[in-house]
């Protein structure tokens, strides 16, 4: 896909996120919307995967560490053809393959169970290390939130990833500046994310996480001998006017009128 | 006093054999190479040890990632640092997705910690791991049995936790029936305390009290069919373990011996998303399940 098509896909994922949460009546819209462009670039511009063979052992891997943003991942997997988009309304419902947080055994295309914050980077480090140990060329991508960097296990894993020179590992931080209880700076005191990862031995890039050209350039750049950290500046709730910068939409379900507004705004961008 | 051998050395001997025969097997260390007597292994096969430093949670997550990509990690750490600090990672990222990761916890039991004190005496590990759905929980009798348990862990599909000792561990000897003098008392034990149980049975026999001693090295799943006939026959049942009385082998034996008790609750499975009402019906903790249990 070219950049224009990727940008459209980012908005299409947003449209699917809203549809999923509105129909199922539960989920986390704003954290899903902030990472939609990054997830679109990964699945439609960067990663080598095969929806017909989700367990293909040479596939690129993706770990959604901020598992509560799974509507974005499910939207990408649905658009990619891992499963029917007709399943969207079953999000978080009993007997559904679309669990409240990602389940690698239930959902085709999910490479790692997640949802307990802070753990994704360490899992991805293991996946990248497995590629090195087995002489495989696949790449591993992990998307974390910024708030969850408060969990110490991230820094344990960062040390190991740098020690093993995992240049097949890319961490993307969805740096929307907000966590469940408010601003990341005030609640958890997570500051200077680029400086911290640089100090831990990562190659670091800072980008606009809604500019697909910048996302693609960062994700396809080479970083020999080092893992890469892409700090993506994003807007929580991006793409739906009343959700942007409004932490009340960390979790929630749009009512009928809010749903129509969101759909109108997103479809205008998709068709524009 | 029983003869002494090392469960740690035995572990490394068996792991080295596995590393030589299967190129997917790796040792994952939280600065555990020296503790596990694995410096020789490290010299011989440096590429087969993933060293994560003093960081148990990350070591478990890295192992989950390794296993998801086809490797067979054996995580080595102190029993308590592993099962208390990293139990969430063991539960949510290994057992819930049923990944093939094996855990070996050293210094399990009060006697393994010895003079280190409570910070290094770990007597809750079996209770903690037994409570996590999907785990097989092993407690070898002694060094020789540790080798067998390493192979059992390797051959078991999915997560396994195995407790081992200090490296100065009494020789207990193999076999399920350790002593069979009679049914005056039944002593069921695991690990090193079996040596004391056997000694006690010998002393009691001389006094005319005939006891039977059984050794359990697979605490979960417990072999009910093997244990129940002995339990039913015995005048009294005693369990012994170097572990808290809550949650360990003693609790596990009570769970099968107390036949009047029907335990409604989650049956060692992982549930799913759903409403509270849907979940309690599907996982059998609703009023109708109580009625069914009472009428059964």
Describe what you observe in this structure.
The relative contact order of chain A is 0.17. Chain A contains 10 helices and 7 strands. The model of chain A has no long low-confidence stretch (mean pLDDT 97). In chain A, strands 1-2-3-7-6 form a 5-stranded parallel sheet, with helices on both faces. Chain A has a two-stranded antiparallel ribbon with strand order 4-5. Chain A is an alpha/beta fold and 272 residues long. Chain A is 41% helix and 12% strand. The N and C termini of chain B lie far apart (50 Å). Chain B has 296 residues and is an alpha/beta fold. The longest helix of chain B has 15 residues. In chain B, helix 1 packs parallel to helix 8 and helix 3 packs parallel to helix 5. Chain B is built from 13 helices and 13 strands.
How are the elements arranged and paired?
The complex is a heterodimer of chains A (272) and B (296).
Chain A lengths: L2 H22 L4 H6 L1 H11 L14 E4 L5 H11 L39 H15 L5 E6 L7 H11 L5 E7 L2 E2 L2 E2 H4 L5 H7 L3 E6 L3 H8 L8 E6 L22 H16 L1
Helix pairs in contact in A: 1-3, 1-4, 1-10, 3-4, 3-9, 5-6
Chain B lengths: L3 E2 L1 H15 L3 E5 L9 H6 L4 E3 L4 H13 L3 E7 H7 L1 H9 L6 E5 L3 H4 L11 H6 L5 E3 L4 H13 L4 E4 L5 E2 L6 E4 L4 E5 L3 H14 L4 E5 L2 E3 L3 H10 L3 E4 L8 H9 L18 H7 L4 H9 L1
Helix pairs in contact in B: 1-8, 3-5
